[in-house]
Structures are given as structure tokens and as C-alpha cells.
Design a protein that fits this description.
Length: about 800
């Protein structure tokens, strides 16, 4: 059974239609049909949340949904039999009525049982209003204007408007013509199984491919069965193949677990028959050998390849070459970036503008970046830029390398610190979303700026089209962590950052970076190990690394180390011992399963480490014998296995992390309880335990965390009670218990939280009764509540004694418009 059928709501919607018909026709089945209809309508919002969530559910939850989908499919067949049955065949109709009653009970068990609660937790990433996602950022920046006077959330919205407007400008004759040609290849030619879009970097290939995926004719032809994948220069082929095969077969958990099986190419090519039409878009393909492994020769299956390179017709049947913009289109796009309008303003120097636009040679990315860099600048600044563009000498004669020289001018005009932050972006892998948390922490540590200044730089780079701010499906809340927002960057801009960073000798570079994933370290690094490397940032991107794979290198000035890899085992680099100034360590595994970290003893010498980010790894067991990280301020564990590391009988967290101020544990599904010693870490100011579906309790002495200001327990469905000692958190300003679907009450002691400013308790369906209004009215600092409609009345009674309290009823997304997406 194809899981995507269930997630798209097709089975449930079709069954709903059939049940309406059954209710009208069959007297014997009317009662069951009406009850089932009610239950299916109750189920649709849950399916809708799954659709919106954008998350991959755990394998066991997928299997549960798979089995239930089979029940619905059986119900659909049963409903069809009822409609086909003659009303005079009483015996058969009685049998069908009994089967309908049985189906009703099966669906009832699913709707009413505990699985609904788990589902709501698993698909916790509902889309809330943008103001809710970014009110934390606005709070943090309430005293500071950014750029031209907007807030950070306005900057993100502005980026979205800019992108839409850019597409609108390009959506004239040029883009329409291109769409028509590609559309004909994709849906008008059954003899073409592999087609392509070819053009240089920054020419708008990906924009065109995205427009094809949004095109109504294309979506209708493939019945919305379209998969968009970014391949990049250093792809994980096994994972990509598993994702494609899982999409084709309907087993969409493939590619997210380590036990995926993909049949060999010859078997795929030999299969025959018909199936649903499927389109897979492979964006940013760099290698013919990689492409050949990602093309599956199946009936009704089509591949659209997007690349800077023209591959042979034996592999890609037909290719559309992206053309540069025409003069009028170039001028419109440039003016939009430079002036916020499509035409040259009356007071502007038309000749100068035309010269600059001409130097961009019709390349959309260059027009956007250079235009944005000149916005609001005096005319002499424009004259200087034009002269530099005119003098630009390319590295070689290729158009793309000329692009580097032209866009480098935009970077040269940046403030020194802003330019340094732009160059830092080359430290991260291509085509990967960068969590804002990581970026802000890194900039704060190495550039000696505070978080507000880091945000200002981020927005300035966004305004100049040098990066893109992306809102994740997660909801952001006041005081919450930053990982609800990501940063992405066009690969040409990343290449520009690498180009500008790699001009110096290897040992003297400020950033020692691997441009793409490789099986081993660059050879030129190994040839220069006789001298120390003076890099401030070191970034490595490999597969599995063993002890013998590392060079012996010295980094006396390194403050940031980024380890990107994809493997099940990873030996931490021995040269960490030779990084005495290391302040931020980022370890990210892009593999399909959690990785075991070897050589964890290197942490012994990290006396100056202040920030540690661990993603998709098995966190080693911590004990009192573990060397303390005395200066660590922030620890983040995302998608990790952590339970073995938190053995409460042998662990004293205060001894290991004596100065920890922020702890983030997100999507760690084996965390059952926190060690009691966490209550001794009295320096802790922010604790976020989110999407930990097995967390069942908090320590009884939780109230000892006297400095705690932020407590997020978001989407922890097994958590049933909050300890009474929570009332002793005298500094607590923000409490998030949203989607703790089994939490039954708020303790009376919560009325003692005099500093509490905001409570988010949306989707806490079990909390019906709250402490008495007289108790809650003691929350003198409380000014905002987010809750369900069922308990909003209770809070409104409290509001009578607290006029400044704002009670916000969480919006329920029950529209079925998503079925047309």
C-alpha cells in the first residue's frame, strides 16, 4: 500500500464520499455509515497536520499508519460493495451491514485510542502565524532597529516578498517561454523518460524547475506525485537512491533509516506494467556517474535533471538550455533590487545604470546581488562600482568565473565585520540548511559581538541577497531557541565565499575549508603539516574517518571546528588536542542512522570550549570521571541518542558542566527522564526539551534551578505531571508545554511564579481544569496565554483581575485546501 496515498488524504476523502452515498441508499448501513462519516471527518484534520508538518515519522509510527491505511482501503472496498448490492438481496445486505459495523469499531479504536495523542506529538510541527514564529526575535530586538528600520521577522517576510517579486519580474515572456518548453518535455512527450534543464550557475535553473513543479498542468498530469531532490557536488548516493525508490514504491520511510533496500538498476529496467505517473527532479547535478545511478528506468516514471553541465543524449533524452535575460528583463530585475521598482527612477543616472546592468550580462543572480549592494548608495559609490565592474578581469574566460569577479565587488563594499560573516558561510556544506542557532553562536564567539549585532548582520546580508532566511515548519515562540529559522545560500554565492577565502597560502588562511565532501582530507593539507595552520575556522566534510585518516596538524589559533560527515562510526580528529583556543565545536552527521563517536577523550583538553552542537550521534556515557568542560555555556543535542549518557546513578552534571547556561535536547527519542543532578546546575538559564516523545517525568527538585528563565517542554506526549517544585523557579519568564498531550493539570504552585510573562499551552487537550483564578491572579508579570478554546474561558476569568493579560486561542487548521496542494 502506498503511504503517500494516505498522507495525501486520498483514501479518507474517497471513503468519505462513498459513505455519504451509502447513507443515502442503504437503510441497514445508514447508522454505521453516518458514524463512520463523522469519524473520518474527525480524522481529516490529523491527516492535514501530517501534510503540513514536513517531518519524517518514526518507522514504527509509519507502520501503524500503514496498517490503518489498509483498514481504510478495506472500508472503501466495502462501501463500494454496499452501493453495488441490490436492495432486494436482504441476506447479502445483512452481511454487509455487519461488516460495516466491524469497520466502524476498528476506526473508533484508532480515533479514540492513545495513537491519536502520539500522532499529534509526532506531527507537532504545525504551521502557526508568522508573528507567532518570530515573536521571540522581536522580543530580543525590541530596542534595536535593523537595516532600513525593519525587525527580523519583517526581514524574513521581506525576503519572501523579494523572491515572489523576482519570480514575477522573470515571469514575463522569458520565463513563460522557458516553462512552456520544459513543460512540453515533461508532460507532452511520453517517449522522453529523462529530460534536463542546463545553464550556468545563477542563471535561474532552479527557479525554473520550481516553477515547473508548481505548474497546474504538471501537477495535474502527475497527480501531485512530484519529488524534488538536491544532489550537490558531494551527494550521499545511497540515501538519495533510497529516497527515490521509496517515493516510487510508496515506502517513504526509505532514505531515513539504515535498512533500506533498493533493487539494482537492471532489475528496475526490466520491470513492466503501469503505475501512477511520477516525476523526480534532480537539482544541482555535477557528475555523469552520479546521475546514472539516480535514474530509474520505469514505466510512467520521469526524471528532470537540473545541472550546470550538458550531459550526453544517451543519458538525457532532451535538454532545455536556460537563456540569459533580455535587456528589458535585466533592467526590471536590477531596478527591483536596487530601487524597489521595475523601472529607473526619474532622478537616477540612466546612463550609469544601463552600464552596470550591461556588465551583469543578463545573469539573474548577478543582477539581484549587485543591485541590492548599490541600494540607497550615493552616485559616486555607483560610479566606483561601475569602474570596478568594467575593469574586472576573470580568472579564466568562462562566464561563471567572470561572475565571481563581478559579485565579489558587492562583497568588497560590505562593512569589514559583515564581510567576515559572509565569508564564514563557506564553512558549511553546499545545499544544506544552516540552523540559525549554530551561525549566531559562531559569530558571537569569534567576532566578539553580541547576539543582537549578529542578527543585524544576518539581516543585512539577507537584504543584500547574499543569503536567504528560511522559516522551518516548527513554530517559534518568545524566548525560544533559534533553530526554527534556517539560513540557505545559493551555491554560486557559497563558491564565491570559498573563492575569496582560499586566496592565501593554506597555512595562512583564516578559514581552512573543504569545498565539498570527500572520502579523505585534501592532499595540500597533508603536504603543509610541517608548519602550524593559522586558521580561525576549520571545516571538514567527509564520510567515515578512522584514526589513520587524520593528518597530524596544529591549530594554535582555531576557535571554531565544524565536523560534517555521513557514516555510522566517526573517529574524532586527534588534532583537537592542538586547538587550545577552541570555543565552538559543531558535529553534524548527515547519515541515515546515529553515529558512534570514537576518541571522545579529546574533550579532556577543551578548557575554553563554550558551545557544543551534536547532531545525530550516540552521545557517549557521561560519568563523574568525565573531564569537566568548565567553560561550556551552551550544549545542544539534536536527533541524538542520549539516554545512556544520562545515567542518574553515576552522573553529577554540575561537576561536568559547572557554568552551563543553556541546554537544548531536541528529537532525542530515547530520553525517558533527566538525571536528578541537573537540578544542581544553578547557572542554567534556558532548558529546552522538545519532541522527546518518551520523556515521562521531571526531577522532583526541579525548583532548585533558581536562575532558570526559559523552560520549553514542547511536544513531550508522555509527560503527565509537572512537579510542584516548579513554583520555586522564581526567575522563570516563559513556560512552553504545548503539545504535551497527556499533561493533565497545572500544579497549584504555578501561582508563585511572579516573574512569569508567557505560557504556551496549545494542544494540551487533557488540561481542562486549572488552578483557581485567585491563585493564577498572583502571576503579576503574566501578559500572554496561548491555549485551546476549551480552557480560554477560565483564563478570561483570570483576566478580570489582570487587565493586561492577553488570552490567545490557538488557531486550528481544519481547512481541506491542502488536498489541492
Amino acid at each position: 500500500m502506498a503511504l503517500n496515498d494516505f498522507f495525501a488524504g486520498e483514501i479518507a476523502m474517497e471513503l468519505l464520499k462513498q459513505l455519504i452515498a451509502v447513507s443515502r441508499k442503504s437503510c441497514l448501513c445508514k447508522s454505521s455509515a453516518d458514524s463512520l462519516r463523522s469519524r473520518i471527518e474527525e480524522l481529516l484534520p490529523i491527516i492535514q497536520e501530517i501534510k503540513y508538518s514536513g517531518v519524517e515519522l518514526p518507522a514504527f509510527r509509519q507502520s501503524q499508519l500503514d496498517r490503518f491505511s489498509e483498514v481504510l482501503r478495506g472500508g472503501l472496498e466495502l462501501a463500494r460493495k454496499v452501493l453495488a448490492s441490490s436492495r432486494w438481496n436482504v441476506y447479502k445486505n445483512l452481511q454487509l451491514a455487519r461488516k460495516m459495523e466491524k469497520l466502524e469499531k476498528q476506526v473508533e479504536r484508532f480515533i479514540s485510542g492513545p495513537m491519536q495523542a502520539h500522532l499529534l506529538a509526532d506531527v507537532h510541527d504545525m504551521r502557526f502565524e508568522t508573528v507567532e514564529r518570530f515573536d521571540r526575535l522581536e522580543h530580543r530586538l525590541s530596542s534595536m532597529k535593523i537595516g532600513a528600520g525593519g525587525w527580523v521577522d519583517e526581514a524574513v517576510k521581506r525576503m519572501e516578498v523579494e523572491e515572489e517579486a523576482s519570480v514575477g519580474i522573470l515571469g514575463g515572456f522569458g520565463l513563460d517561454l522557458a516553462k512552456n518548453k520544459v513543460r512540453k518535455m515533461v508532460i507532452g512527450r511520453d517517449d522522453l523518460s529523462v529530460v534536463g534543464i542546463w545553464g550556468i550557475g545563477g542563471s535561474g535553473k532552479t527557479t525554473l524547475a520550481n516553477e515547473i513543479c508548481k505548474d497546474n498542468q504538471v501537477r495535474s498530469y502527475f497527480n501531485n506525485k512530484i519529488l524534488f531532490l538536491t544532489v550537490s557536488q558531494s551527494p550521499d548516493l545511497e540515501q538519495l537512491r533510497a529516497k527515490i525508490w521509496g517515493f516510487i514504491t510508496g515506502n517513504e520511510t526509505m532514505g531515513y533509516s539504515g535498512d533500506s533496500f533498493v533493487p539494482p538498476g537492471r532489475l528496475l529496467q526490466s520491470e513492466s506494467g503501469t503505475g501512477p505517473r511520477t516525476l523526480v527532479v534532480l537539482d544541482d547535478v555535477w557528475s555523469l556517474s552520479v546521475l546514472e545511478q539516480l535514474i530509474f528506468k520505469l514505466p510512467t516514471y520521469k526524471t528532470l535533471v537540473v545541472s550546470r553541465f550538458k550531459f550526453p543524449t544517451s543519458v538525457i533524452n532532451k535538454v532545455y538550455k536556460v537563456e540569459m535575460l533580455r535587456d528589458n528583463e535585466s533592467m526590471s530585475l536590477f531596478c527591483h533590487s536596487a530601487f524597489g521598482q521595475k523601472t529607473i527612477p526619474p532622478a537616477a543616472n540612466e546612463t550609469l545604470i544601463k552600464q552596470i546592468v550591461s556588465e551583469c550580462q543578463g545573469l539573474p543572480l548577478a543582477l539581484k546581488v549587485i543591485g541590492a549592494s548599490l541600494r540607497d548608495q550615493p552616485e559616486m559609490y555607483w560610479v566606483s562600482a561601475m569602474k570596478r565592474l568594467t575593469r574586472g578581469e576573470p580568472i579564466c574566460e568562462s562566464h561563471e568565473n567572470k561572475l565571481f569577479e563581478r559579485m565579489a565587488i558587492s562583497v568588497d563594499y560590505l562593512n569589514k565585520k559583515v564581510k567576515e560573516c559572509f565569508l564564514d558561510l563557506g564553512s558549511f556544506p553546499e545545499d544544506k540548511k544552516i540552523p540559525l542557532d549554530i551561525l549566531i553562536n559562531m559569530w558571537v564567539e569569534i567576532h566578539s559581538i553580541d547576539e543582537e549585532d549578529a542578527f543585524a548582520i544576518l539581516v543585512e546580508l539577507s537584504d543584500k541577497n547574499l543569503l536567504t532566511l528560511v522559516k522551518d515548519a516548527r513554530s517559534g515562540d518568545a524566548y525560544s531557541s533559534y533553530y526554527e529559522i534556517y539560513v540557505t545560500q545559493h551555491d554560486v554565492l557559497r563558491d564565491l565565499a570559498l573563492h575569496l577565502s582560499n586566496r592565501a597560502d593554506v597555512n595562512e588562511r583564516k578559514r581552512l575549508l573543504m569545498p565539498r565532501r570527500d572520502t579523505k582530507l585534501p592532499r595540500d593539507w597533508g603536504r603543509k603539516t610541517d608548519r602550524p595552520f593559522n586558521a580561525q575556522i576549520v571545516s571538514v566534510h567527509t564520510g567515515e574517518m578512522r584514526e589513520m585518516d587524520w593528518y597530524r596538524m596544529e591549530f594554535p589559533k582555531a576557535e571554531v571546528l565544524i565536523l560534517n560527515f555521513a557514516s555510522s562510526d566517526y573517529f574524532l580528529p586527534p588534532f583537537i588536542d592542538d586547538m587550545p583556543k577552541l570555543r565552538a565545536l559543531i558535529v553534524i552527521n548527515y547519515g541515515t542512522t546515529e553515529a558512534t563517536l570514537l576518541n571522545f577523550s579529546v574533550f579532556t583538553n577543551l578548557a575554553n570550549l563554550r558551545s557544543l552542537w551534536l547532531e545525530k550521534v550516540l552521545v557517549p556515557e557521561l560519568s563523574n570521571a568525565t573531564a569537566p568542560l568548565r567553560n561550556l555555556r551552551k550544549l545542544s543535542a539534536v536527533l541524538c541518542k542520549v539516554n545512556n549518557s544520562f545515567n542518574p546513578s553515576v552522573l553529577d552534571l554540575l561537576q561536568i558542566f559547572p557554568r552551563l547556561t543553556e541546554l537544548v535536547i531536541d528529537h532525542c527519542d530515547d530520553l525517558v527522564r533527566l538525571p536528578a543532578s541537573i537540578c544542581k546546575v544553578n547557572s542554567l538559564q534556558s532548558l529546552s526539551i522538545t519532541n522527546c516523545h518518551r520523556l515521562s517525568e521531571l526531577p522532583a527538585d526541579f525548583g532548585l534551578l533558581k536562575q532558570l528563565q526559559i523552560l520549553r517542554l514542547y511536544a513531550c506526549p508522555e509527560l503527565k505531571v509537572l512537579p510542584p517544585s516548579i513554583g520555586e523557579l522564581v526567575e522563570l519568564k516563559y513556560l512552553d508545554i504545548s503539545q504535551c498531550v497527556n499533561l493533565r493539570s497545572l500544579p497549584r504552585e504555578i501561582g508563585r511564579l511572579a516573574s512569569l510573562e508567557k505560557i504556551d499551552m496549545r494542544e494540551c487537550s487533557q488540561i481542562v481544569n486549572l488552578p483557581a483564578p485567585a491563585v493564577l491572579s498572583n502571576l503579576k508579570s503574566l501578559h500572554r496565554i496561548i491555549c485551546e478554546d476549551e480552557v480560554s474561558g477560565h483564563w478570561k476569568n483570570v483576566k478580570k483581575a489582570m487587565p493586561g493579560l492577553h488570552v490567545q486561542v490557538a488557531e486550528k487548521w481544519y481547512s481541506l485546501d491542502w488536498l489541492d496542494d
